[in-house]
Amino acid sequence: QEKGSTFLQLGSSTEQQLQVIFEVLEEYDWTAFAVVTTLLPGYEDFVDYVEVLTDSSFIGWEHRGVVTLNLTDDPEGARTRRQLREVTAQIRLLYCSRDEAEAVFRAARDAGLTGPGYIWFVVGTNLGGSEQLPEH
Question: Ranges for the Receptor ligand binding region domain (predicted)?
Fold first, then answer.
C-alpha cells in the first residue's frame, strides 16, 4: 500500500442480507422460521431487524423463536446440540462469524439437523473471503 492511499472494501450489510433472504422465503412460501444466533457483536440488532421485517410485512410470518448459543461455554457442543434440537422450524436464520459457523454446523450435523428437510441461511458481515469452504 502506497503512502496516502486508501483501501475500501464494500460488502452487504446484515439488513441487506436479511431483505434478500426474506424475499427468498416469500418466493418459496416458507413462512415458518426460527432465528439462531451466537453472541457475535450485533446479534441483538439482527434479532431486532428480523422482528421489524416480520412485523411490518403483510406476509403471515410464523416466527418460532430465537435461540442464542454460547459456544465458548460449550466446547464439546452438547448444550448447542440440545438447543438446536429444541428449534421446531426447518428454516433457520443463523447469525454468526465464519469460525462459529463451523462449530454450529458441526453440532447441527451431529444432532441430525443438516440433511434434506433443513434449510439454513447464514447471515454475517465476515463470512466471505476464504477460498476454502467450511467442512460442515
Answer: 5-123
Which DSSP letter does residue 93 get?
E
* Distance from the Cα of residue 75 to its chain's centroid: 20
Which three three-digit cell numbers place residue 71? 459456544
CB 103 within 8 Å of CB 38: no
Check: CB of residue 62 under 8 Å from CB of residue 88. no
- What's the predicted TM-score (pTM) here? 0.83
d(CA 75, CA 48): 28
Residue 126 buriedness (CB in 10 A; 0-12 / 13-18 / 19+): exposed
The β-bridge relationship of strands 119-123 and 32-37 is: unpaired
List, for residues 72-93, the tens digit of each pLDDT value.
888 788 999 999 999 999 999 9
Element (H, E) at 49: helix 43-55
User: For residue range 90-100, what is the model confidence (pLDDT) as tens digits?
Assistant: 999 999 998 89
In the chain, DSSP finds a helix count (H) and a strand count (E) of 4, 4
Q: Provide the percentage of residues in the chain whose pLDDT is more than 90.
A: 59
